[in-house]
Amino acid sequence: MNTNKIIIGICLITLMLVITIPTIAKINESQKEKEYQSLVLKIKEATQKCLREEKCQGNSKIFLEELVAKNYLSIPINPKTKKEMSLNSYVEINNQEYNFIEAEV
């Protein structure tokens, strides 16, 4: 009888872990994506400010290297990889639309 209770207990704990671990992983991934999108927005806003103040040059691309050199940003850390983003990443400007393109490190 005690063996059955132990087996049932182990099965319940295993079932809870099987359900809980993937859920936690999804929440973690979702949080990293939100942090990444927030960082991209910050980069776009820095680009807009630099252009508005007429300190950045270029009509279609503004590189992170220029934004960092002119102190509009510090070197961004990608929340997904926990590594610095390449300074060759850039914001592409097309008809007042700003798109961030991340270059490989």
Q: Overview of this structure, please?
A:
With 105 residues, this protein is α+β, with helices and mostly antiparallel strands. The protein has one domain (2-101). Helices cover 54% and strands 16% of the residues. The protein has helices at residues 2-52, 64-69; strands spanning 61-63, 77-78, 83-84, 90-94, 97-101. It has a 3-stranded antiparallel beta sheet with strand order 1-4-5. Strands 2-3 form a two-stranded antiparallel ribbon. The protein is rod-shaped. It starts with a helix and ends with a strand.
- How far apart lie the N and C ends? 60 Å
Main sheet specs? 3 strands, antiparallel
Number of helices: 2
Which spans of ≥5 residues are poorly predicted at pLDDT below 50? Answer: none
Query: What is the percentage of strand-forming residues?
Result: 15-25%
Q: How many strand units?
A: 5
Helix content: 40-55%
Averaged pLDDT? 89
Order of helices and strands: HEHEEEE
Structurally, the number of domains stands at 1
Please provide a brief summary of the model:
This protein has helices at 2-52, 64-69, and strands at residues 61-63, 77-78, 83-84, 90-94, 97-101. It is of the alpha+beta class and 105 residues long.
